[in-house]
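Q: What would this complex look like in 3D?
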Amino acid sequence: MPTAGILVIGNEILSGKVVDSNSPYLCKQLRALGVDVEQITTIPDVIETIASEVREMSRRFDYVITSGGVGPTHDDVTMDGIAAAFERPIESNPVIETRLRECSKGELNESQLKMAKVPAGAAFIDSDHLWIPLVVVENVYIFPGIPELLQKKFEGVRDRFSGVPYVLRRIYVNQFEHEIADALNDLLEEFPKLMLGSYPKIREENFKVLLTLESRDADYAQRALDSLLGRLLPSAVHKAE
Amino acid sequence: MPTAGILVIGNEILSGKVVDSNSPYLCKQLRALGVDVEQITTIPDVIETIASEVREMSRRFDYVITSGGVGPTHDDVTMDGIAAAFERPIESNPVIETRLRECSKGELNESQLKMAKVPAGAAFIDSDHLWIPLVVVENVYIFPGIPELLQKKFEGVRDRFSGVPYVLRRIYVNQFEHEIADALNDLLEEFPKLMLGSYPKIREENFKVLLTLESRDADYAQRALDSLLGRLLPSAVHKAE
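A: Here is my prediction, written as structure tokens for the whole assembly.
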């Protein structure tokens, strides 16, 4: 199954001024497409840091998705970082430059021209809904940091990312984790390929633990669900779905 | 100034089922304390992955804060990962075991005893408000994943983390980024130590870009703010604070 790493670039996240909503969005979307997100990392707008993280993630995952640092200002250095990761020069791309000219009334200034600069040999994914095409360097897909724009861009290219999606089943249990831990361990011995999550909740009225059972095989998930329901006290199961 | 890395451990974040609220909380808190968060990484509940990330972060940052993976179930392997990072054995700690026994009515079962197991040679930070003391291994501070518990624990030990806090000033500008990019670059030449952020907003009625000016020196931040206000068109400044 394809794997992905998400690289969030931006001082504003690390300093606590902005909450990153892009990685939760991407995790949900990629999950639904059957792509396994294996790491999310947030780093500052520093060229060397971006370069080393991109190089490492590109080696380890099938897809790398970056978010942020592609605007016209001094702190937008993502393109430089990705160029450095693959030892490529930065060059102005004529396709993007033309798009920018079409949208601008007058001449482009220095900061607008900056937005046409991409690593040499970059690929582009275009779609009717996009103002500027998505820039791709090797297996690195470069998205803007503004959530509305990132989502619009992802919608335009989502068919590029695909795998077999997971089936998710849930059991809401009205016992403490330590009381059901043995049942969970036994379940995993019977269903070793199951992805089993156990999430204690406080301040919930009707249950104490949410159990999630996931598999790419719907039948396997159903059999595991049935097996676990058989292992729990019927009175302890608030709901199964 | 002290630096920190945050390591979020949990499959539920990567699969998009749960949105991580711990790292935004920690970033805000540490910022207010004057500690620079330089990286946030989210990884799955896998011992080897935890071990290698902890080793790397421990080497690079003054403080490492982990969140998640410390409960009683099969997928709680953070202690094992941290023990492996520093090549220490895991052992049952008598202090924590006693606390657990005090809170439990009967005998402790296997999964409850698991919560007393920590890397050998761990340190503990205790406070009146904590049920179980915070476990610290070298410079790694181990927090639970449940946000209410993490926050309670952090509140109990926050005076351990300290530096000189930043002063944050803001200007709300009613022009596009590319129209003010030159002014920002000139400002940074005059104030090279300023942390300057530029955040375009769409769907805001009264401004198009939020500029943030930060420094640990309040006077430096004020002088930079005044200088930037002098560089912008007065009619383009919606608000400065």
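A: To summarize the key features: The first strand of chain B starts at residue 3 and ends at 9. Chain B touches chain A through 59 residues (CB under 8 Å).
Q: Very helpful, thank you.
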